[in-house]
Amino acid sequence: VAVNHCLLMQFMLLFSRQGKLRLQKWYVPLSDKERKKISRDLVQTILARKPKMCSFLEWRDLKIVYKRYASLYFCCAVEDQDNELITLEIIHRYVELLDKYFGSVCELDIIFNFEKAYFILDEFLLGGEAQETSKKNVLKAIEQADLLQENIIELHTDRGGCTMAK
Q: Where are the transmembrane segments (predicted)?
């Protein structure tokens, strides 16, 4: 009997070469203490690895897949039976989406526009699974959300902004 198993990501972390966590998305319920410990352990483990080493490692009962782009590491945890190459492709697709949106994304883009980085990730992944593989469709949804946000800001500004009762 064939089982249709789709990749289910446990979490995604983005961190700098200095070990600063820039983005974290958790798809499994964990306490803050557990999240901090996992983040700290994985950041230390990955940063200690040599550049030519394999981008896959077994960690606890999970498979860790990571890739460095410029000064940022993108790290995903998937279940042991999940495909590492598909996970690498998901990481790469997310980087492509960030590049398209920001125009060659860099660490500062993530720092100063973290809400956009999360929004792009949420348009692409839902509950740890890829929901939309078309870059064009993801970018279109982001463009529409940006336009809506601009319209709300314009409407708010046209009405004189926020008024406070005295």
A: none
